[in-house]
Amino acid sequence: MTMAEAYIVQAVRTAGGRRKGALADWHPADLGGEVLNAVVDRSGIDPASVEDVILGCVTQAGEQGFAFARNAVLSSRLPISVPAVTVDRQCGSSQQCVQFAAQAVMSGTQDVVIAAGAESMTRVPMFTNISYHEREGVGVGPFSDRIKQRFGVENFSQFQGAEMLAAKYGFDRDTLDRFALESHRRAAAATDAGVFREQIVPLAVAGGIHDKDEGIRYDATLESIGSVKLLTEGGVISAANASQICDGASAALVVSERALKDHGLTPLARIVNLTVTAGDPIIMLEEPIGATRKALARAGMSIDDIDLYEVNEAFAPVPLAWTKALGADPSKLNVTGGAIALGHPLGATGTKLMTTLIHNLRARGGRYGLQAVCEGGGIANVTIVEAL
């Protein structure tokens, strides 16, 4: 039996906002509502035809708590008849939303689904959702004694995982800092050339319109990056060669072939492969390598068949290890910069990267793109798309 196809007909994102920066006054539900409006408006589809909204968010507390995805719908111009659900697959949350949306379409159970993500890391800081036990003296946090005993740790740290990854693949600080500098240079060049203009949803902010990523350091040098304090004494990871805290939202409209015809839609991309895997929760950030191998095998492809890669720059060792292990071409990797320069708005990053990947493929005449994201707990999502 031939599997039905899933298509992406619109993909948008906000420009990233720095911590306590341009988007600090935006409630995260409103950020989500804006990108939902944008994918509907830009596609021209009847808002009432949207059958579900699947929205990623990592820190589901405070303004991002209480059915956050539904609140984004209520903040949007979508009719109240549109349901919504919030997904937490850590940094890959909204990439998983794309995959869930595609699975719904490919199974024939739905025809029009929005995958999205929103995160205000300014207004709802990281770990807000897991600090209750520390404030109230209740419980032991998310890791039970059984889990701690099984793995011989008190906590699973992505910072430690990044250091372990750098050591395993032989990356010193200079290598990581040079990669970080290149991320800023590529992002700055892309911004200056107007590459992001088509994919960004402009937002009104104090002082004007926010339509450019705020975290790009146009004056970055190897010396300035190298002067930033290391996160661990004797380590190689600093805030300058890791992803930036970021506020933002993003969304993709995923539809069936039937919806293309019924609504007169023109697809941007076809979804080729959906993969999620899990591995070692301690080093954790290495998992995109195995997930990519599985995705390529299932798709009957090799890494050389892929024209562009978006591998999330959670920490510089992640894309560097991925490239080294897979023999990938560095010139195809994060060609317009990554999270080190553009920010990593946690639950919004998946559809943010998908938006950039699809637009870059189409602009450069590429055919296949691959997106890979490392996630807390040793999970990784990989999605392959074909630009149309």
Automatic annotation (TrEMBL):
Any single Pfam family the record assigns to this protein: Thiolase_C
Enzyme class: transferase
Domain Thiolase N-terminal residues, every copy: 7-257
Domain Thiolase C-terminal residue range list: 265-386
Gene3D superfamilies per record: 3.40.47.10
GO MF annotations in UniProt: acetyl-CoA C-acetyltransferase activity
Protein keywords: Acyltransferase, Transferase
Record InterPro entries: Thiolase, Thiolase-like, Thiolase_C, Thiolase_CS, Thiolase_N
EC number: 2.3.1.9
Residues annotated as catalytic: C91, H344, C374
PANTHER family according to UniProt: ACETYL-COA C-ACYLTRANSFERASE (PTHR43365:SF1), BLR7806 PROTEIN (PTHR43365)
Family in the record: Belongs to the thiolase-like superfamily. Thiolase family.
Protein name, entry field: Acetyl-CoA acetyltransferase
Source species of the chain: Novosphingobium lindaniclasticum LE124
